[in-house]
C-alpha cells in the first residue's frame, strides 16, 4: 500500500519550457520533461492555431494520467463536458482504453466544437463487462482557444467520497484527499498540500510495482514485470492477482481466489446458478442481472412505469437496447401497488439532466453495475392534477371520492400521515402514521383529504411516489443530483367560507448497493395544506427537493399547515369562524442499504424517516 505521510506544503517547480491555459487563473508554465510526447504535439498545434481557430468552436484535447491498469482494472473512458452558468448542452464522448497504461500520460481523445466559456470536464473510467464505474474525476476548465488538459486519477481515490462535510467546494480527489476541482497537471497549485516530496516517501509493498511522487502525492506504478502464472497480472498494490477473463459472451471473474461465473440465459444474466451477490428488497434477485445495456438519461426525459417506455422531451419513445422492463406484483394485499422494474447494466443521469416519472407502478431501477444520479429524478405528486399521486403513491381526495392510501383519513381537510401523523384541519384529525421503515412492500405517500366545497380545484394533494435504486455496484447521488418524491399541496379557497384541503404525504425512496454515496438531496417531504385568500385560492406548496418544509397556503383569512420535512412534523391548519385551513402532509421514508458503510453527507429529508441498514 502507498504509505501515508504527514502533509507538507511544497512549492512545485516544473521549469518554463511551455505554457498552457487551464483552470480559471491564467497560464501555467512547466518543464516539457514532465509531459507526454502526445501532449507536446498538441501544445505546438494549439499555439500555432490559437489565432485562427475555426468559428465552429475550439478543440479540447484530453489526456489521462493514472496508476490504474488499463485492460485489467478498466477498459472504457468517458468524457462529459458540462457548461457552467447557463443551460447549454453537454458534450459527451466514450473511448476504449488503450493498452500499455497511462503513465506518465496518454491522449484520450478530443472534444470538438467547444465555444468559449467555463466548463466542468468529467472523466470516468469503467468496466464495460459489468457497467461499473471504477472512479470518476471532475476538472474545471476555461476554454478560450484550442486547449489541452491532463486529468490526474489516482487509485487511492477509488473508495474516497468527495466533497467532505467541512469543505463542499472540494469535489475532486487526488492521492486519497479531496481537492479543488481546478486541480490538474497543468494547474498543480490547486492540488492541495503535498503528501510527498520524492519517490522515497512512497513505499509500495508489491514486488512488481514501485512508488512515485508526482503532483505531491504517491502513485503506485507497475514495473512491467510479468507474473509466473499466465492467468495472473501485476496489481500495483497487491502483487500478482488473477485476471478478469471475458469469454463466450459471458464473464468469469477471478479475484483473490474467489470465482464468480456469469452467463446469459433465457431470463438474462445469472451468477452462480442464478444467484446475485445479495438479495434485493421487493423484487426477484435475477432482475439485478437481467439487463445487458445501459440506461442513460440526457436532458429532460420521462419514464413510464405502466408501459415501460422512456421518452425524450418531445414525448417520443427512445430506444433502450438491452434494458428489460418487468411489471412485478409485490403483494396480494388490496391497495399495494405493483412495481415497474427497469433492469439495466448501468443507469446514469447526466449532469443537468432530469427524469420525470409517471405511471401507477412504483419505479425500480435494478443494475448489475453502477447507478449514478448526476441530475434529478422527480417522482413527486401533483402532476398532471393536484390530486394526482406520484408513481406508486395514492391520490388525494376529490368531490365524492375520498383520499386513498394507508395514511389517508375520511375527515375533511386533513393532511395525510406517513412517518408522522398528518396535520389536522381544526375539527378533523390528521391521517395516521403509515408504512414500514423497511419499505417492504415499497409504497408511496397517501393523499390529502378533500375540503368542503364541491369544487375539483379544492382537491387534496396527491401522495408522493416511490423510487427504488438497487445496484450490485455502487449508487451515487452527486452534489448536483437529487431524488424528489414530495407530496402535493392541498387546494385552497378564495374568500368564501369553508374548509380547505389537506396536503399529500411524502413518498418513499429505497437505495441499496455495494456502496452508497449521497452528496446531493433525497427528499420525501409532505405537501402544505390549503389556505383561504380573497383573490385566488391559497394552494399549499408541494414537497420541495430540500430539507425545508413546504409552506401551507397563506391567506388573509386562514392558513394551511406546513408539510413535514427535515426534523419538523407537519403542522395543523388555522381556523377563523367558518373558514378552516387544511392540514399539512407528513414526510415519507428513506431507507439506505449497503454492503459497505454508506457516505451520507448530503441532505436526506425527513430525518425521522431515515433508516440505514447493512447488507449481510
Largest sheet: 11 strands, mixed
- How far apart lie the N and C ends? 27 Å
Radius of gyration, whole Å:
27 Å
Q: Count of helical segments?
A: 1
Helix content: under 10%
State the low-pLDDT regions, or none. Answer: 1-55, 245-275
Work out the number of β strands.
42
Structural class: mainly beta
Shape verdict: elongated
Overall average pLDDT: 82
Strand content: 35-45%
Overall description:
The chain is mainly beta and 616 residues long. The chain is built from one helix and 42 strands. The strands form eleven sheets. Strands 20, 23, 24, 25, 27, 28, 30, 34, 39, 40 and 42 form an eleven-stranded mixed beta sheet that branches. The protein is elongated, with a radius of gyration of 27 Å. It starts with 17 loop residues before the first strand and ends with a strand. The N terminus is likely disordered.
Task: Briefly characterize the structure.
This protein is mainly β and 616 residues long.
Helices and strands in order, then pairings?
Layout: E1 18-21, E2 27-30, H1 37-49, E3 58-66, E4 76-83, E5 91-96, E6 102-114, E7 117-127, E8 132-143, E9 147-153, E10 172-174, E11 177-179, E12 209-214, E13 217-222, E14 232-235, E15 239-242, E16 244-247, E17 250-255, E18 258-265, E19 268-271, E20 294-297, E21 300-304, E22 310-311, E23 324-328, E24 339-344, E25 346-349, E26 354-358, E27 362-367, E28 371-373, E29 376-378, E30 466-477, E31 482-484, E32 493-494, E33 498-499, E34 508-518, E35 521-523, E36 532-533, E37 575-576, E38 579-580, E39 589-594, E40 599-600, E41 603-605, E42 610-614
Parallel strand pairs: 3-9, 20-25, 21-26, 24-27, 25-28, 26-29, 27-30, 28-30, 29-31, 30-34, 31-35, 32-36, 33-38, 34-39, 34-40, 35-41, 39-42
Antiparallel strand pairs: 1-2, 3-6, 4-5, 4-7, 7-8, 10-11, 12-13, 14-15, 16-17, 17-18, 18-19, 21-22, 23-24, 37-38
Amino acid at each position: 500500500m502507498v504509505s501515508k505521510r504527514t502533509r507538507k506544503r511544497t512549492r512545485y517547480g516544473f521549469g518554463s519550457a511551455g505554457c498552457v491555459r487551464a483552470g480559471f487563473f491564467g497560464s501555467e508554465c512547466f518543464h516539457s520533461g514532465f509531459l507526454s510526447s502526445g501532449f507536446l504535439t498538441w501544445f505546438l498545434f494549439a499555439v500555432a492555431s490559437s489565432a485562427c481557430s475555426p468559428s465552429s468552436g475550439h478543440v479540447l484535447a484530453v489526456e489521462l494520467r493514472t496508476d490504474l491498469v488499463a485492460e485489467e482494472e478498466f477498459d472504457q473512458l468517458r468524457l462529459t463536458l458540462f457548461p457552467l452558468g447557463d443551460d447549454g448542452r453537454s458534450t459527451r464522448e466514450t473511448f476504449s482504453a488503450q493498452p500499455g497504461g497511462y503513465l506518465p500520460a496518454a491522449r484520450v481523445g478530443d472534444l470538438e466544437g467547444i465555444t468559449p466559456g467555463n466548463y466542468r470536464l468529467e472523466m470516468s473510467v469503467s468496466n464495460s463487462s459489468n457497467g461499473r464505474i471504477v472512479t470518476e474525476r471532475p476538472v474545471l476548465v476555461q476554454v478560450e482557444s484550442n486547449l489541452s488538459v491532463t486529468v490526474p486519477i489516482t487509485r487511492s481515490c477509488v473508495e474516497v467520497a468527495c466533497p467532505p462535510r467541512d469543505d463542499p467546494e472540494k469535489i475532486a480527489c487526488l492521492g486519497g484527499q479531496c481537492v479543488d476541482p481546478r486541480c490538474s497537471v497543468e494547474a498543480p497549485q490547486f492540488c492541495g498540500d503535498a503528501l510527498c516530496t520524492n519517490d522515497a516517501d512512497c513505499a509500495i509493498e508489491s514486488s512488481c510495482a514501485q512508488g512515485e511522487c508526482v503532483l505531491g502525492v504517491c502513485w503506485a506504478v507497475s514495473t512491467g514485470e510479468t507474473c509466473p502464472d499466465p492467468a495472473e497480472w501485476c496489481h500495483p498494490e497487491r502483487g500478482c492477482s488473477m485476471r478478469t477473463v471475458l469469454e463466450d459472451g459471458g464473464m468469469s471473474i477471478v479475484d483473490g481466489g474467489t470465482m464468480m461465473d456469469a452467463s446469459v440465459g433465457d431470463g438474462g444474466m445469472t451468477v452462480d446458478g442464478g444467484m446475485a451477490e445479495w438479495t434485493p428488497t421487493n423484487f426477484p434477485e435475477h432482475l439485478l442481472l437481467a439487463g445487458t445495456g445501459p440506461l442513460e438519461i440526457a436532458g429532460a426525459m420521462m419514464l413510464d412505469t405502466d408501459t415501460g417506455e422512456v421518452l425524450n422531451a418531445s414525448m417520443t419513445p427512445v430506444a433502450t437496447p438491452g434494458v428489460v422492463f418487468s411489471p412485478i406484483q409485490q403483494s396480494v394485499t388490496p391497495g399495494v401497488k405493483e412495481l415497474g422494474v427497469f433492469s439495466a447494466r448501468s443507469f446514469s443521469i447526466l449532469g443537468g439532466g432530469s427524469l420525470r416519472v409517471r405511471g401507477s407502478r412504483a419505479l425500480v431501477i435494478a443494475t448489475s453495475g453502477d447507478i449514478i444520479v448526476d441530475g434529478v429524478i422527480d417522482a413527486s405528486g401533483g402532476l398532471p392534477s393536484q390530486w394526482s399521486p406520484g408513481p406508486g403513491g395514492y391520490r388525494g381526495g376529490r368531490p365524492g371520492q375520498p383520499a386513498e392510501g394507508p395514511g389517508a383519513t375520511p375527515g375533511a381537510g386533513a393532511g395525510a400521515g406517513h412517518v408522522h401523523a398528518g396535520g389536522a384541519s381544526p375539527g378533523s384529525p390528521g391521517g395516521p402514521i403509515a408504512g414500514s421503515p423497511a419499505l417492504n412492500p415499497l409504497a408511496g405517500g397517501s393523499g390529502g383529504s378533500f375540503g368542503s366545497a364541491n369544487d375539483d380545484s379544492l382537491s387534496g394533494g396527491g401522495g408522493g411516489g416511490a423510487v427504488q435504486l438497487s445496484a450490485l455496484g455502487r449508487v451515487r447521488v452527486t452534489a448536483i443530483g437529487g431524488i424528489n418524491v414530495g407530496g402535493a399541496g392541498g387546494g385552497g379557497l378564495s374568500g368564501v367560507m369553508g374548509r380547505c384541503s389537506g396536503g399529500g404525504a411524502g413518498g418513499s425512496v429505497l437505495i441499496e448497493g455495494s456502496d452508497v454515496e449521497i452528496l446531493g438531496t433525497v427528499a420525501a417531504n409532505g405537501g402544505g395544506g390549503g389556505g383561504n385568500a380573497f383573490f385566488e385560492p391559497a394552494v399549499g406548496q408541494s414537497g420541495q427537493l430540500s430539507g425545508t418544509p413546504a409552506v401551507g397556503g397563506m391567506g388573509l383569512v386562514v392558513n394551511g399547515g406546513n408539510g413535514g420535512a427535515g426534523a419538523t412534523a407537519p403542522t395543523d391548519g388555522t381556523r377563523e369562524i367558518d373558514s378552516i385551513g387544511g392540514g399539512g402532509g407528513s414526510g415519507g421514508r428513506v431507507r439506505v442499504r449497503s454492503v459497505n458503510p454508506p457516505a451520507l453527507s448530503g441532505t436526506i429529508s425527513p430525518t425521522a424517516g431515515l433508516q440505514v441498514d447493512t447488507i449481510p
